[in-house]
Amino acid sequence: MPQQSYLLVQRENVTEIGPFAQVVWSPIAKVNIFTSGRFDRVRFDVTDFFITDGNNGGQRNLDSYNGLFGVSADLRDEFTPYANIGTAFETPTTTELVNQPDGSGGFNTQLQPQKTRGMEVGGRAFFQNAGKTRNQGVE
Q: How far apart are CA 110 and CA 112, in angstroms?
């Protein structure tokens, strides 16, 4: 069986725009109702310079509208309970998008963005930096 080798020579560019709006309303003292909306457009461009296997360059846009609604109460300086519900959007990385099962260039069109709907309930607290951290790992 002959050994197969893959060669990619391509430039990958990613451009993102994410305008958003946020509104906070206090119907009574110490109670805040907040909402926000965001539109994300992430554009991936691949320019293929190794075209002996065909031109695998191109573009792909991933778009999403997301929002958040929540409420909080300033009960004390140290304790602010809150609850919110919202959506989020996360694209695949460029490494994931250009990694084809057969080793060819271009986009893996089977991959889609991750979309999340979440709820959160808690009490806001204030934190201080630890100063430094150390992480070790192997991948």
A: 6
Q: Give the start-to-end residue ranges of the domains of the chain.
A: 10-123
Strands 80-90 and 114-124: antiparallel
DSSP H helices, 70-136, are 94-97
What is Dmax (Cα atoms) for the chain? 76
> Which residue, 78, 108, 115, 74, is CA-closest to 94?
108
Contact between residue 46 and residue 94 where contact means Cβ atoms under 8 Å apart = no
From CA 41, how far away is CA 135, in angstroms rounded?
Answer: 33
pTM (2 d.p.): 0.69
Rounded distance between C-alpha atoms, residue 68 and residue 87, angstroms = 7
pLDDT digit of tens for each residue in the chain (139 aa)? 444 445 677 788 899 999 999 999 999 999 999 999 999 999 998 888 877 777 778 888 999 999 999 999 998 877 889 999 999 999 998 888 877 777 766 778 888 899 999 999 988 766 677 677 777 777 6
